[in-house]
Write the structure tokens for this entry.
Amino acid sequence: MKSLRLILGNARYFGPSWVFASINILFGTWAIYIPTVKESLNISKSELGIAIFFLALGVFTVFPFASGIVNRYGVGKVTFSGVMMSCMAAMLPLLAPNYYVLMVALFLFGASNGITDIAMNTLVTEIEKKDKVKFMAASHGFFSLGGVLAGLGSFLIGPLSNPVLHMFLAVLLVVLVNVKFRSQYFSEVAEEVENEPFSFGLLKPLLLLGLISFVAMGSEGAIVDWSGLYLKEIALAPEALWGLGFLGFQITMTLGRFLGDGISDKIGSVKIVALGAILAIIGYFLVLTANVTLSIIGFTINGLGFSVMVPEVFRIGGNVKGIDSSKGIAFIAGTGYAGFLCAPPILGFLAENYSLTRSFVVLLACGFLILLFTLLLKKKRA
């Protein structure tokens, strides 16, 4: 909580952290309207899954070029420009007149988010080195906080009855706060570091960590993308409650990220990942009851479980004996985003050809897989 107090007490640290929140405010507001877009464009679940795949593809496509852009133009400028581009791109999916325009719009939205993601993480890293402070974990907590704000915005669905207006209000909030605090980070420049080529010899000791990251990030993305549709079509929740699964998920993700470091210090990284997997499994069982209240509680418990997984896997990967920490984290991040990329179309295919319930049964099985991987990881470390 020390880093949270640092952010809230100093504009220099609040400015970059708000960028993290901004990205999830925009993405979360889009996620709330996924069922609406599906209905208005009259597309199938598998088509929706492919469209969401284009969002993840946009994120993944920009990654190879992001560091070069950041180094050339300055990390502060790219961070601010990236979040402004994300604001413009966030409007496009809700304005799409047909399925093909939707795919293009989501690709652009994903690409804008991707460049901002690399820039904002680099920005916080540079400020940490210069100021000799630590607030990266809390900044990621602000990302989850942005999701909470987006979830609270779901209560505007009924009163506004206008998805485009709703997104415009979210964009306006993001733009105004970022413009106010951009002077705190706009002139920051990243220190260029010559990276050694990645060796495939590093794959073996990192394989279990990569698998956990792949499954965990894929599951996180699936809950964000499909929780609203599940509550609507399977749990038969009223319209006002469609966003509550997402909201509960984001609230507990935020709490878990602000509190997880302290718990990890007491029980260890592997044990906290295993605990997270157990919580995720419990959450999925509640979701699969298809009871509105229990499903919302289930998504909320899912958030608590998944909140600690990826940060702890990064921590373990950065301390694998004999492997450079940056290479370990890069491998885990790459496999994680691959999971995020693959999950939407796979679940969309399952939902279309079998049922949305079957998709969540697969996610439940993934929870058990993560638990198995942590047991194997504990054995290997021992």
